[in-house]
Amino acid sequence: MVIMASRSTAFRFLTSVVLLFFLAGCGAPLSEHWSGYRLGQGAEPSTAADSPAAAKPPAPAAPDCRKVKCVALTFDDGPGTYTEALLKLLDEHNAKATFFLIGKNVEKHPGIARDEVAAGHEIGNHTYSHQDLTELSLAAGQRELRKTEEAIKKATGAAPTLVRPPYGVIPKGLKKSLDVPVALWSVDTLDWKTRDTKKTTKAAEKIVPGSIVLMHDIHKSTLEAMPKILADLGAQGYHFVTVSQLVGNPKPGIAYGTGRHPGGKG
Ligand SMILES: [Zn+2]
What we know:
Elements (H helix, E strand, L loop, with lengths): L1 H25 L7 E2 L10 H5 L19 E7 L6 H10 L5 E4 L1 H6 L1 H9 L3 E4 L12 H19 L5 E2 L8 H5 L5 E2 L3 E2 L2 H4 L2 H7 L8 E5 L3 H16 L3 E2 L2 H5 L7 E2 L10
Helix pairs in contact: 3-10, 5-6, 9-10
The structure holds zinc ion (ZN).
Zinc ion (ZN) binds next to loops.
């Protein structure tokens, strides 16, 4: 009888927990559109918590982006030649960023991906071979993402917490099948197009509190623009946070940021 009673209590407790999670989920504004986003107090990205580096003392809590100026700097297409130098710069400015990694580059540079996670940056999936997902079948698109997730897990011990499709485009069916949110951007520095340090720095002047900024750590001009961008934003009182910290607990099924390019495909 005693066993029965405690089982029943445990069952009731479990039911309440499940119900609470369900209700919390219902509160999320699920949208089919590229949505704007509200700012939040971000939890640390789960990549940091799950990583082999988790044995280190916990990082300080993320700032409350509803109360202080935050910006999410994001870097696509790596890991690459300039990534380690960028990690050093970010560290000097106590800056967290988000890296959207290409699977085949992770296989080439697993140690750099591991360093990104160890430094507390967030990792997103940017497909295996950087193809336009709208030109692939659903199965081929899923394979691109799955192969990348496996490469990232193998290299870092952690799974990517976001997806950013190449060129900012993803078929609706594929987006629906994802178990992580889609992160686009709100400011495109066009660094991929201009490959010009001064123009990249100038474009970063469009950053406002809450911006998700698109950049690429595979270009030398971007790396060379970073000292001034970090110094200028730092002087304006910005906190450099990951995408998940910026929006606080992003939800699968939602795309954060508009993903617009000021002219052209990128
Ligand atoms: Zn890209």
